[in-house]
């Protein structure tokens, strides 16, 4: 079954280079009309020019595809709304949004300025919120939408020097969890991509040989599946160097200890059992945690 995007309109943010560029090229090659967005700044988010996005548009058009360039910063909601208007005026719909734009401001937490924390949160989290908010009513009205958030192993599992980036990337997983529930009845599927790729963002972080294996285009299949007609919903797909995995937010079976004066001590003694992954589940919604806990209490009280 081939994955095609004929008649579909996609917006890819931060698509002037790195992973976003590969996403845009691949969507266009498979028939999508693509808004190539990029602020055109450096890896820290400084400066800006639409020329990076325009170069990708030129490449798509030269290959016979359709694309338009947009230089909006995803941090500016008005500019994002104008970008969506640009897509609607050109093509009348928006089917796919790939929230990919991002920056780094790495430092250990002790040395990190709050301004660098806030900016990273703003670009990754509010950037994705702005873009998704602007396309959401259109996707609801169409009864069709595919949204991909770009999370990261740094958010899912942590990474030294990336407290700001990790917090932002985990926030995107949280955003995905709720939007996938809210979008379901409108056929809007929301998923997250955790890539590993050699881009300017990872320059100097890994040996040359490893970076070579991590070509950005190797991540693209995971995005294409999540942007496709048969996309899953509420999945975190990890991808890099041709390998693919899924990250899950699990809930262990835990224990029932009841409520008493010595519960803290008994909990401390039972931590290994509480954190034991045997029979862990992946809840379909947050309410399942409460249901599990109340269920244990009812059982203990013979209810
Ligand atoms: P990159 O730096 O090559 O690409 C990011 C793009 O976003 C740049 O073209 C930049 O100009 C654009 N951008 C930055 N701020 C923007 C804004 N306010 N508005 C619009 N565009 C803006 O880096 P890369 O690696 O391609 O990153 C793409 C995404 O993948 C990012 O969200 C990043 O956090 C994520 N990621 C990358 C990993 C990797 O191994 N390269 C690992 C995990 C996540």
From TrEMBL:
<dbReference type="InterPro" id="IPR002347">
    <property type="entry name" value="SDR_fam"/>
</dbReference>
<dbReference type="InterPro" id="IPR051687">
    <property type="entry name" value="Peroxisomal_Beta-Oxidation"/>
</dbReference>
<comment type="similarity">
    <text>Belongs to the short-chain dehydrogenases/reductases (SDR) family.</text>
</comment>
<feature type="domain" description="Ketoreductase">
    <location>
        <begin position="8"/>
        <end position="204"/>
    </location>
</feature>
<dbReference type="InterPro" id="IPR057326">
    <property type="entry name" value="KR_dom"/>
</dbReference>
<dbReference type="InterPro" id="IPR020904">
    <property type="entry name" value="Sc_DH/Rdtase_CS"/>
</dbReference>
<protein>
    <submittedName>
        <fullName>SDR family NAD(P)-dependent oxidoreductase</fullName>
    </submittedName>
</protein>
<keyword id="KW-0560">Oxidoreductase</keyword>
<dbReference type="Pfam" id="PF00106">
    <property type="entry name" value="adh_short"/>
</dbReference>
<dbReference type="GO" id="GO:0016491">
    <property type="term" value="F:oxidoreductase activity"/>
</dbReference>
<dbReference type="InterPro" id="IPR036291">
    <property type="entry name" value="NAD(P)-bd_dom_sf"/>
</dbReference>
């Amino acid at each position: 079954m081939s994955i095609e995007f004929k008649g579909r309109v996609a917006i890819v943010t931060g698509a002037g280079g790195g992973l976003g560029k590969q996403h845009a090229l691949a969507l266009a090659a498979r028939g999508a009309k693509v808004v190539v967005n990029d602020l055109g700044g450096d890896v820290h988010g400084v400066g800006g020019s639409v020329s990076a996005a325009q170069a990708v548009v030129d490449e798509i058009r030269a290959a016979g595809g359709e694309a338009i360039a947009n230089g909006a910063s995803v941090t500016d909601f008005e500019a994002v709304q104008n970008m969506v208007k640009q897509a609607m005026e050109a093509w009348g719909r928006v089917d796919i949004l790939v929230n990919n734009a991002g920056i780094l401001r790495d430092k250990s937490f002790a040395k990190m300025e709050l301004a660098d924390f806030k900016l990273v949160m703003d670009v990754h989290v509010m950037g994705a919120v702005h873009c998704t908010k602007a396309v959401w009513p259109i996707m609801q009205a169409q009864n069709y939408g595919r949204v991909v958030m770009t999370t990261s192993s740094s958010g899912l599992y942590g990474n030294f020097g990336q407290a700001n980036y990790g917090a932002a990337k985990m926030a995107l997983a949280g955003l995905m969890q709720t939007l996938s529930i809210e979008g379901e009845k409108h056929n809007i599927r929301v998923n997250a991509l955790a890539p590993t790729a050699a881009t300017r963002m990872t320059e100097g972080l890994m040996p040359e040989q490893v970076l070579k294996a991590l070509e950005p285009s190797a991540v693209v299949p995971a995005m294409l599946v999540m942007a496709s007609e048969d996309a899953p919903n509420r999945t975190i797909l990890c991808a890099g160097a041709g390998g693919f995995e899924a990250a899950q937010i699990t809930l262990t079976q835990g224990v029932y200890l009841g409520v008493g004066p010595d519960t803290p001590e008994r909990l401390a003694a039972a931590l290994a059992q509480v954190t034991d992954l045997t029979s862990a589940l992946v809840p379909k919604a947050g309410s399942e945690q409460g249901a599990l806990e109340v269920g244990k209490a009812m059982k203990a009280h013979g209810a």
